[in-house]
């Protein structure tokens, strides 16, 4: 089968690889009908996330079950499904305690042997373990494009809003206008805040998209002091909640400075390195900080919100390409030579 193969640091190519096979009775083989390029793919390609090259990339997908292990009870051949980037068994100590993103028996698709050696989604087929625990049925009334972002960037944005405790009447400020930041705007809007302030850098296209998706205010951190802007807008009180979806140390520090006394800061952007925080301000102003991996257990809830029409992320799709074009797609996503938010790939 054809797949995007990570052959070495800064190197990748579309090549023929062996089609995955069932290894365990709880596995399924899924025919990929849609996948999408993620910033994490670039982090792996360039060694920001350490891994040993020699695997197929990708971790977001919509697909159809082609074959199911004999122990799989909830899914059969022909079922349309989505699944999390990090499959989970549902029965280990971490899963039982609700920490399914840290499953002791799992891993992350398309991230190498260090992270479970699970087949990547930038391919025609993948093997998914623990199917009954982690896969979710896609209702017939929904198209692939309506659900492709649920398992990763939308789950992350929704987790950020929940951990940030965004509530009706709040002022919420979101740092980062990339795919996760834009999903955080969509997620925050679900909780009926009074204001949603989206802070980007210099990509006017993405900031305009934030406004279309529900941001009431947008600004460039390169043109204005974000924390000062928030304080002026709130008459010196500060935002109730701040979300950082960028992973930038500058943005994280601004998020801490922009919230009110006893405000909430939710960090979901991957930093890739250690950062310093103004802990004296955090302490003296009782700022609450939460961070970490998204809770993929929200997938079923998010499908319901898509079904109800409260979420529609199709505007994030700026490019549609075939698997044969995926090398070009990765370059376009990284270099942003055009107005790019998300590129979807159809095998």
From TrEMBL:
GO terms for molecular function: oxidoreductase activity; zinc ion binding. InterPro entries: ADH-like_C, ADH-like_N, ADH_Zn_CS, ER, GroES-like_sf, NAD(P)-bd_dom_sf. Its cofactor is Zn(2+). Residues 7-345 form the Enoyl reductase (ER) domain. Keywords: Metal-binding, Oxidoreductase, Zinc. Transmembrane segments: none annotated. Pfam families: ADH_N (PF08240), ADH_zinc_N (PF00107). Belongs to the zinc-containing alcohol dehydrogenase family. This is S-(Hydroxymethyl)glutathione dehydrogenase/alcohol dehydrogenase/alcohol dehydrogenase.
């Amino acid at each position: 089968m054809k797949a995007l193969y990570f052959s070495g640091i800064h190197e990748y190519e579309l090549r023929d690889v062996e089609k995955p096979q069932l290894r365990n009775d709880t596995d399924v083989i899924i025919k990929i009908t849609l996948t999408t390029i993620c910033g994490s793919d670039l982090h792996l390609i360039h060694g920001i996330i350490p891994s040993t090259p020699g695997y197929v990339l990708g971790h977001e997908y919509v697909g159809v079950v082609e074959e199911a292990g004999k122990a799989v009870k909830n899914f059969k051949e022909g079922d349309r499904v989505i699944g999390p980037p990090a499959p989970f068994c549902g029965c280990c100590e971490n899963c039982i305690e609700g920490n399914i993103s840290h499953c002791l028996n799992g891993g992350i698709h398309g991230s190498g042997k260090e992270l479970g050696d699970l087949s990547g989604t930038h391919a025609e087929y993948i093997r998914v373990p623990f199917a009954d625990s982690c896969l979710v049925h896609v209702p017939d009334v929904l198209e692939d494009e309506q659900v492709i972002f649920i398992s990763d960037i939308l789950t992350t944005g929704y987790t950020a809003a929940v951990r940030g405790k965004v509530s009706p009447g709040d002022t919420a400020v979101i740092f980062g206008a990339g795919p996760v930041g834009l999903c955080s705007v969509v997620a925050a809007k679900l909780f009926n805040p009074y204001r949603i302030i989206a802070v980007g850098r210099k990509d006017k296209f993405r900031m305009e998209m934030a406004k279309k998706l529900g941001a009431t205010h947008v600004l460039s951190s390169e043109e204005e002091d974000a924390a000062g802007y928030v304080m002026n807008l709130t008459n010196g009180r500060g935002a109730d909640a701040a979300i950082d979806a960028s992973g930038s140390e500058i943005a994280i520090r601004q998020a801490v400075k922009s919230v009110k006394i006893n405000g909430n800061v939710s960090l979901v952007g991957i930093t890739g390195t250690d950062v310093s925080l103004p802990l004296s301000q955090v302490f003296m102003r009782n700022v609450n900080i939460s961070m970490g991996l998204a809770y993929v257990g929200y997938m079923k809830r998010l499908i319901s919100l898509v079904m109800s029409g409260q979420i529609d992320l199709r505007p994030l799709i700026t490019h549609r390409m075939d698997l044969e074009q995926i090398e070009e797609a990765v370059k376009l996503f990284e270099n942003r030579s055009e107005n790019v938010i998300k590129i979807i790939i159809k095998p």
